[in-house]
Amino acid sequence: MAKTANIIRAAVFASGNGTNAENILGHCEKYTGIQAVAIVTDQPYAGVIERAKKFGTACEIVPRKQGMDKVAHEQAILDVLQKHKVEWIFLAGYMRILSPEFLRKFHDEKLGVNRVVNIHPSLLPAFPGADSYLQAFNAGVKIAGVTLHFVDDGVDTGPIILQRAFEREEEESFDNFRARGMKLEYEIYAEFLRHLVEGEVSVAAIPGTDRRIVCLGKDGEKGKWAQQSG
User: Fold this and answer.
1) Which ranges in the chain belong to alpha helices (H)?
2) Is 81 in a helix, a strand, or coil?
3) Sheet holding 160-167, edge to edge
4) DSSP letters along 9-67, please?
């Protein structure tokens, strides 16, 4: 993916407090090649709304109203994204699963993936789904971590972009455990944004499989196993 002369137009999806969304907005402000043109939330009272105001970013509240089915709700979101001419979607604590039909609207033929990225609070494929920090903590894992990945039709199954791990401390509280993980979430999203702006994101097929692997850096110089860094 060559460096583009055009500014990448992105939307950040969040359902909650929005600390990850705020991190993304802050890094988008640092780069001339990308603009977070909108925050999209499905929750009318989400904390992310106030965080969007701090950056002067448009905040689109698109709740799934009573009686509204998934198709209608996603169409309402697509209408908002079209209005803002959004090219990329960054999920940052968005608590709804996007349908394959929705994702296809953002499929990139050259990359071979959807231009939709998600941050997940575990070392996938371990602990997919909701409450992953709590799952890992209760399981007593010695090594935990976070994963940034492209979104595909499955739940937390898309090609891994980056992962970061941390070692659990003795007698560590859950709050501290989660806080350490969230710090890594911010770091790897920022790293990905830097590579994206520089045109240093590519995706390669793994021969003999239906899997794809993400390469970061100029000409993939970070290696085909970039997602294992850290």
Assistant:
1) 19-30, 48-55, 70-83, 100-104, 132-139, 174-197
2) helix
3) 58-61, 34-41, 8-13, 88-91, 116-120, 143-150, 160-167
4) EEEEE-SSS-HHHHHHHHHHHH-TTEEEEEEEES-TT-THHHHHHHHT-EEEE----TT
What's the chain's length in residues? 230
Q: Which residue of the set 27, 73, 120, 149 is catalytic?
A: 120
pTM over 0.85: yes
Residue 165 CA to residue 131 CA, distance in Å, equals 17
Taking only the tens place, the pLDDT of each residue in 83-122 is 999 999 999 999 999 999 999 999 999 999 999 999 999 9
Q: What angle do CA 138, 142, 145 make, to 5 degrees?
A: 85
Confidence grade of residue 209 (pLDDT, cut at 50, 70, 90)? confident
| Domains of the chain as residue ranges with CATH | 1-96 (3.40.50.170), 119-230 (3.40.50.170)
Catalytic annotation present for 120:
yes
Q: What is the pLDDT of residues 141-166, one digit of tens each?
A: 999 999 999 999 999 999 999 999 99
8 A C-beta contact, residue 86 and residue 38: yes
Q: Please state, in angstroms and as integers, the Cα–Cα distance from residue 168 to each residue in 144, 148, 173, following that order.
A: 7, 20, 10
